[in-house]
Amino acid sequence: MSDREALYNLLKTTFILLDDGDRRLFGQFDLSPTRYYALLHISEKPGLSSSELSDRLLCDKSNVTRIVKGLENTGYIIRKPHESDGRTLRLYHTEKGKTVCNQISEAHQAYNELRLNCINEISQGSLLENLTILNDSLNEELLHPLFKMNGQNSNQS
Questions:
Q1: Is 48 helix (H, G, I), strand (E, B) or coil?
Q2: Would you tell me which of 16, 26, 83, 85 could form a disulfide with 31, CB atoms 3.0–4.6 Å apart?
Q3: What is the mean pLDDT of residues 124-152?
């Protein structure tokens, strides 16, 4: 196994472990990670449209519709018509949604402190820098894929 393949496998395992921990934590609040992150994005930008939420969650609009309906049914968000575009609805927290989002965000922050405390400050700085470079590169690759989905090299931009 090459070093790059080993690195990929370690990153994948790290993601799986972090994701499982998140699912367990958010599950204590009867939310999935996706629903929590939807609440968080709405908190960061009140009035967000479903289309913008879809972009931020990296999922299709039908999934966002299901997520939004679920959050509406729990009383965490409401949809209001856009001021000038009658086809668009804006998403806002209810008071209950703000409270829950704040509670979960605080619990998530504390949990991340706990599960990442094994990394010392010197290593953390280097890790943050390298992961930032990797994420920037991965985002760029998604915008301009080097390979088609079938694995053949693509020369198109």
A1: strand
A2: 26
A3: 79
